[in-house]
Amino acid sequence: MIHMEKNEVWFITGSQHLYGEATLAEVRKNASAIVSELNRQGAMPVMMVFKEVLTTRAAITNLMLKANSNKNCIGIITWMHTFSPAKMWINGIKQLKKPILHLHTQFNRDIPWESIDMDFMNLNQSAHGGREYGFILSRMRRDRKVVVGHWQDEAVQARISAWMRAAMAWHDWQGMRVARFGDNMREVAVTEGDKVQAELKFGYSVSGYGVGDLVASVNSVSDQQVKEHLALLEKSFDLAPAIVQGGTHRSNLEEAARIELGMQSFLEEGGFKAFTTTFEDLHGLKQLPGHAVQRLMAAGYGFGAEGDWKTAALVRAMKVMGHGLPGGTSFMEDYTYHLKPGGMKVLGAHMLEICPSIARDKPSMEVHELGIGGKDDPLRLVFDVEKGPGLNASLVDMGGRFRLILNPCEVVEADRPLPNLPVARVLWVPEPDLPTAAEAWIHAGGAHHTGFSMSVNAEMMEDFADIAGIETLFIDKDTKIRTFKNELRWNDLYYHLSGGLNH
Ligand code: MN
User: Fold this and answer.
1) How far apart are alpha carbons 148 and 79 in whole angstroms?
2) Separation of 450 CA from ligand 1 center, angstroms?
3) What is the per-residue pLDDT across 404-438, written as a single tens digit (0 to 9) for each?
């Protein structure tokens, strides 16, 4: 349920009428060639559309208004091929509601040492044209991504792609609906937050439903639908002996399949893209819907446990950002530590709800007792995760504003097999090391719930936070605790002042 095919990024070029029609025709030809070539190479996740060479205040404003109202336009890339006096851009930029990337490139990579003359100099002015344009955006305090280098350079294309992925997720959030089955886990602080502020800032709305509404949907699933679904599950997973046909817990599998189908139809009918559950509110459900959550996350839904709607929305955004890339994205919780000097690592898991998109092998489908929740033994998918680079992200409400915390990590193998652990799990070493990472995370107020991804990188998330206009904190190889604590103090002041009455 992630559909990005219609998304497009508009590419526009700034200039002026000083140079004559021949030069403008050349500018148009070069800009159009960049767009066609990048689309042809398939290096970008989103189709680029060349719009026009903008040379007047009216044309710039008109284009920005069109971008605002176009449902498929997720952002604009601007390039100053020549010099474009930037006062012409003020009115348009002031009205533009879509994300901006400023590509600071030039058509030619090299200076043509032998042939360069004043005609060439007139045509290729991005080195100073881009600075004039940059000034006005900075003067307007307008967040945007600036990418510098030749447009055919792979590193440049990767940076543009990262921004496109962030813009995809941002576009997806606008008007998104998040469903909550029940409220937050009682007395938990970090899963709370200001839902009105979230809608103002992020564009998604969060609505609560009684679990009875979900139960009604589950009970309306027919036996025939369950039967057909079981055939699909049997094909997709390795079933434990207790839940195969005739097994002692076969009925638990049937009930889990029914819950999955009921939950899916509830979410589809309401047009939801993310949801939360809580084990404290399960009246009428026979088991904690862990398996259903795992399956729906794998299909693209965002999820947060214990009513954690901020993480549910974040997981959805990360799934959109990583769409089509290798790796996967899951709801995650820092569960327990291995604190052996020289081999410290985190074991991440949850009661049940880890997304099989990050599974290394075909997951095993099992039923085990669950002490929490007081329900029937629930079904769950159990698996390990392939080693490689990963990322943990946490979005918290600091009271009046939101903060995003990012911590890259390296997923590693368990020191030994875990034969008695009946849940999906992942082991990682956070950057720069576990004690520094956890100390910084705790100072920053990072949650125990995260969006965990092996497809989304820190650059995409940084671009996303910049588009949203919220604080981003990196805990990575460069983190020093003393500097980090000061960053927190300075940021508090900056966001207090910059937000004023409009956090
Ligand atoms: Mn939890």
Assistant:
1) 11
2) 9
3) 999 999 999 999 999 999 999 999 999 999 999 99
Angstrom CA distances, 49 to 15, 67, 73, 270, 311, stand at 18, 12, 9, 33, 33
Buried b vs exposed e over 208-233: b needs ≥16 C-beta within 10 Å? ebebeebbebbeebeeeebeebbeeb
CA of 343: how far to CAs of 72, 338, 427, 435, 479, in Å? 48, 7, 11, 12, 20
Token pair listed for 176: 């998104």
Per-residue pLDDT tens digits for 133-144:
999 999 999 999
Continuous segment of H or E residues that includes residue 312 = helix 309-321
Q: Is the pTM of this model over 0.85?
A: yes
The DSSP-derived string for 125-144 is -HHHHHHHHHHHHHHTT---
- Dump the DSSP string for 1-20: ----TT-EEEEEEE--GGG-
Report d(CA 384, CA 357) in Å as an integer.
11
Q: How far is the CA of 306 from the centre of ligand 1 (A)?
A: 6
Contact present, 217 and 263 (Cβ < 8 Å): yes
Residue 271 tokens, joined: 């047009």
Paired tokens of 199: 């809608």
3-state secondary structure of 302: strand
CA gap 449, 476 in Å, rounded: 19
* DSSP 3-state percent helix, strand, coil across the chain (nearest 5): 40, 20, 35
Beta partners for residue 302, in sequence order: 274
**Cα 449 to averaged position of ligand 1 atoms, centre (Å):** 6
- C-alpha 357 – ligand 1 centre gap (Å): 19
Distance (angstroms) between ligand 1 centre and the Cα of 308 equals 8
CA 213, 450, 167, 398 torsion: positive or negative? Answer: positive
Using an 8 Å Cβ cutoff, are 217 and 331 in contact?
no
pLDDT at 501 over 90: no
Contacts of 13 (CB under 8 A, 6+ apart): 27, 28, 31, 52, 53, 54, 78, 79, 80, 81
Least Cα distance to 307 among 331, 286, 328 occurs for 331
H helix and E strand count, the chain: 15, 19
In this structure, are strands 238-239 and 205-209 parallel, antiparallel, or unpaired?
Answer: unpaired
499 falls in which pLDDT band (50, 70, 90)? confident
Which residue carries 């029609």 as its tokens? 21
For tokens 């903008």, the residue is 54
Residue 388 alpha carbon to ligand 1 centre in Å: 24
**Residue 393, H or E segment:** strand 388-397
